[in-house]
């Protein structure tokens, strides 16, 4: 049980760092090369679409365990330390906000509706 707690903490830390990268991508003070990389890493980290789909055994999860942390690390190294600290503080503040279950249900409903329309179109 103790080990899973440590993994959960690491996952939360990675999520917070990915949020830091997303904030950096949107800030005009971020150097342009870091901004481009940050945008790509944040888009990949928060996108439901993966380079290798998760249903493929081992490789599907391996891309998330390798690509996202390496991208976040590379991006954070490109950002000057004072900006990085400011972005991390903002990310911690945003991560501490409560999760909206209503928004989650609304997003799930939109995906379900889209899947239904696509299935109806394909089966027609």
Automatic annotation (TrEMBL):
The chain crosses the membrane at residues 32-49, 99-123. Keywords: Membrane, Transmembrane, Transmembrane helix. InterPro entries: DUF1232. The keyword Repressor does not apply. Pfam families: DUF1232. One of its GO terms (cellular component) is endomembrane system. This is DUF1232 domain-containing protein. It comes from Tsuneonella aeria.
């Amino acid at each position: 049980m103790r080990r899973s707690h440590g993994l959960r903490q690491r996952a939360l830390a990675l999520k917070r760092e990915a949020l830091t990268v997303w904030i950096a991508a949107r800030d005009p003070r971020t150097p342009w090369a870091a901004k481009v990389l940050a945008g790509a890493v944040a888009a990949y980290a928060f996108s439901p679409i993966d380079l290798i789909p998760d249903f493929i055994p081992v490789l599907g999860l391996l891309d998330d365990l390798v690509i996202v942390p390496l991208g976040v690390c590379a991006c954070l190294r490109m950002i000057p330390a004072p900006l990085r600290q400011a972005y991390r503080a903002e990310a911690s503040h945003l991560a501490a906000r409560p999760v909206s279950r209503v928004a989650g249900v609304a997003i799930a409903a939109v995906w379900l509706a889209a899947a239904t329309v696509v299935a109806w179109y394909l089966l027609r």
